[in-house]
Amino acid sequence: MATIGRAGAVAIISPLRFSGFLAWLAWLFVHLMYLVEFQNRILVLLQWAWNYFTWNHAARLITGENAAQRSNSENMQNVLNRRLHEERRGDDKMATQADGRRQSGTDP
């Protein structure tokens, strides 16, 4: 079963094949029946009906915003970590050079 748009779906249930509005109603029914309590079923049905008739797209729309934000955040974190590592490595080189000068007696 899969929904396609606002009132369309496809479903293959054993030997039966549905498409369109009838498959969409079957999809709604099956998903409602998987909810545990009767009260939950009624509440979800009312929420779905409200979202359907008010064209509330947030209920059905999955966007990649969080993934994009997470990706940008991860990229920024990687850049910062790389710079910090480079700074630490540079500090280590400077400390090693200073130690070498102290041991050779050339450090003022």
Describe this entry's structure for a reader.
The protein is mainly α and about 110 residues long. Helix content is about 65%, strand content about 10%. The protein contains three helices and three strands. The mean pLDDT is about 75.
Written as H for each helix and E for each strand, in order along the chain, the element string is: EEEHHH
The assigned structural class equals: mainly alpha
Q: How are the strands ordered across the major sheet?
A: 1-2-3
Number of strands: 3
> What distance separates the N and C termini?
80 Å
Percent of residues in beta strands: 5-15%
Q: Helical proportion?
A: 55-70%
What is the chains' assembly state? single chain
Uncertain runs are: none
Number of helices: 3
Task: Please tell me how large the radius of gyration is.
Answer: 30 Å
Shape: rod-shaped
Please, what is the average pLDDT? 77
Largest sheet: 3 strands, antiparallel
Describe the structure concisely for a colleague.
The protein is built from three helices and three strands, in the order βββααα. It has helices at 21-33, 38-53, 65-104; strands spanning 2-3, 9-13, 16-19.
Produce the secondary structure layout.
Blueprint: E1 2-3, E2 9-13, E3 16-19, H1 21-33, H2 38-53, H3 65-104
Antiparallel strand pairs: 1-2, 2-3
Tags for this model:
108 residues, mainly alpha, 3-stranded antiparallel β-sheet, 3 helices, rod-shaped
